[in-house]
Write a structure and sequence with these properties.
The chain has two domains: about 170 residues, Rossmann fold, CATH 3.40.50; about 190 residues, Dehydroquinate synthase-like - alpha domain (Dehydroquinate synthase-like, alpha domain), CATH 1.20.1090. It is about 45% helix and about 20% strand. It has 13 helices and 13 strands. α3 crosses α4, α5 runs antiparallel to α6 and α10 packs antiparallel against α11. The radius of gyration is 20 Å and the shape is globular. Bound molecules: glycine. Glycine binds next to loops. The site of glycine (GLY) has 5 residues, from loops.
Length: about 350
């Protein structure tokens, strides 16, 4: 099975995609760590904790539970985890395993980035979304009421252990939410990945191992390549935000409770395709393919009551807004995107209305 090297200024590490790799988790820990903390949620631990316990063997580890949910991804959760680490004797030689979905990875990673000014973290993602995207690349952080991920740090992991066999217990809604991020990789970088998602929808939705492993491996390959080229999102890494500008606005507007992150990104990708068409960048046929493919993996939960003006107002506090200009990642064809900071607000409003209609 494949492994991909991520090379950044602070860390060079491996993102391993391999069924069963979690059983070798101990191999990736720092050799001389003191306390080992596993940050996870109760449901993940109930399903897969025994596997990690067995993998860590005689290594003493303390399991710290985070309540889960985007609305709990707050600084208070990081504070609580770090206080528990102190109480359990954690010190500068401690290490963390973030074991769960993207939210656990972000919160556990941020706790590791902050505790005693930084201790190592191994990312062990258990959802499709975290496996294909969130776990690799060192982004950690929490939400503010004003916006998503507005507080955080880059803290590259020691390793990313992607074990696709863990997905067998993932609820279908969470699985599909991760598929939207995979569709994203097809649109931004890899036409064959997008075509696989178009042509093998039933196999992908049924979690056919060949299809699942291929789409995870290609997504992680792209993520490793992009992060290695641009760790801190000064340039190329911005393409990973396709669908995220309006997606983050939608998450904030719905109080981080109504939608999973991947679902909000799915909506944002549809809106961005309409926007690219309106900007004259994207052919009608490619726009239709993006909208249809994203939609056929849905449906995205009802967005009744979401008003375009409220979403537009949210854009201003997004991290992708620079000097007051909202930046959008827009496709020029399947497999290629551009970052644009010159998008008129009336075009954004139109695209948002089209997207709301398309998903209703
Ligand atoms: N999820 C986008 C990134 O890691 O840059």
């Amino acid at each position: 099975m494949p492994q991909f090297t991520v090379k950044t200024s602070s860390q060079e590490y491996v993102a391993l995609v391999e069924r069963g790799c979690l059983q070798r988790a101990a191999e990736w820990l720092p050799p001389k760590h003191s306390q080992l903390f596993v940050v996870t949620t109760r449901d993940v631990w109930d399903l897969h904790g025994a596997l990690l316990d067995a993998a860590l063997g005689e290594k003493r580890h303390q399991v710290l539970f985070f309540p889960g949910g985007e609305h709990n991804k707050r600084l208070s959760a990081v504070e609580s985890l770090c206080e528990q680490m102190v109480e359990a004797g954690g010190d500068r030689a401690s290490a963390v395993i973030a074991f769960g979905g993207g939210i656990v990875g972000d919160v556990g990673g941020f706790a590791a980035a902050s505790f005693m000014r930084g201790i190592p973290v191994v990312q062990a993602p258990t959802t499709l979304l975290a496996q294909v995207d969130a776990a690799t690349g060192g982004k950690t952080g929490v939400n503010l009421t004003n916006g998503k991920n507005l507080l955080g740090a880059f803290h590259q992991p020691l390793a990313v252990l992607v074990d696709p066999s863990l997905l067998s217990t993932l609820p279908q809604r969470e699985y599909v939410a991760g598929l939207y991020e995979v569709i994203k990789y097809g649109i931004i970088r890899t036409p064959w990945l997008f075509e696989l998602l178009e042509s093998r929808r039933d196999a992908v939705l049924a979690r056919d191992p060949d299809a699942v492993d291929a789409l995870i491996a290609e997504s992680v390959r792209i993520k490793a390549e992009v992060v290695s080229a641009d760790e801190k999102e000064g340039g190329l890494r911005r393409i990973l935000n396709y669908g995220h500008t309006l997606g983050h606005a939608l998450e904030a507007e719905t109080g981080y409770k109504q939608l999973l992150h991947g679902e909000a990104v799915g909506f944002g990708m549809i809106a961005a395709a309409f926007l690219a068409k309106r900007m004259g960048m994207l052919a009608e046929a490619d726009c239709r393919r993006i909208v249809d493919t994203t939609h056929t993996y849905g449906p995205i939960p009802s967005l009744a009551g979401v008003e375009p003006p409220a979403l537009l107002a949210r854009l201003v506090s997004d991290k992708k807004t620079v000097h007051g200009n909202v930046h959008f990642v827009l496709p020029s064809r399947i497999g290629e995107v551009e970052v644009r900071g010159d998008v008129p607000l009336d075009a954004v409003r139109w695209a948002t209305e089209q997207a709301l209609q398309a998903v209703s």
